[in-house]
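Review this:
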Amino acid sequence: MRLSPLTKRRINRFFKIKRSVLSLAVLGVLYILSLGSELIANDKPILVFYKNTPYLFNAYIFHSDKTFGGQYDTEAQYRGLNKTAAFMQGSGNYMVFPLVPYSAYSSSLDELRGNPPTAPDAIHILGTDDRGRDVFARLLYGFRTSLTFALVLLVLEIVIGCVIGALQGYLGGAFDLVMQRLIEILSALPFLYIVILIGNVLGQSFGMLILIMAIFNWIGLSYYIRSEFLKNKQFQFVEAARALGVRGAKILFSEILPNALTPIVTFMPFSLISAVFTLTALDYLGFGLPAPTPSWGELIQQGMENLSSYWLSVYPFIILFLTLLLLAFVGEGLREALDPREYSRME
């Protein structure tokens, strides 16, 4: 795909804004690392070498207790496995655990020095929650959950908002009028009540929460896409395409849409900020993702119930603040790079 000179100038301008580029790089690296959270923080070893046979990536592959000389068909309990007689009989048997040998889902009550939640120490560097689970592991898994949720929601928001906004702006007339009235009705619905109602009826889940939020989140973007299409469809390049016999759908998505991408790109980081913050707020209120899904909002809610356990609220707040700050820096850079005043002049 060939980029126009204006697009190249915008990209070059964005990469000159070091703060935005650095923020984007940090977020990208952290998210890629979080996709392999099971290899960073887990109570299941990365490698088990038993009877001259290596067993790799045990967090993703099921191995029963019988595989390692046990008696049961259930999954092996690796933290106690290396203390069993069957495992210790072989001189070459060993395990390699991740950097943080604790999972975000299972507790380690037998290793704690007191009743949970316990303060940060050399073993649990950010402490444990009220169920004895490692806070660092839950923050790491929660980062993956939050950004994945925000990215999936962003894709749905862009697809739905672009399609409906483009059709409104291009077709106009009765279709535009009817859709505007439907959008007004949808905007008037109380979002939190809808989440509570559907969550109680159909149950709380990642997919259900994505679906509910996608129903509402596309509305704001559709306004901007509609206005861009209303403006661009009057230009001469659209009239020229029609004169050449180009069909309506191709004009819509091949001719007008590329010239209406500015609001989409500009609002992407701020849509991510909104999604991350909304998910955290819903989890804090108890209407978000179901337990035991790692969540920043759920940790903050635990901190409010255990005010003396500062690590349950302070660390999630810091991580949430830094994540939203980095996203805001990226959005600021995109806004400056796409600012039309940089490429226009008075004559």
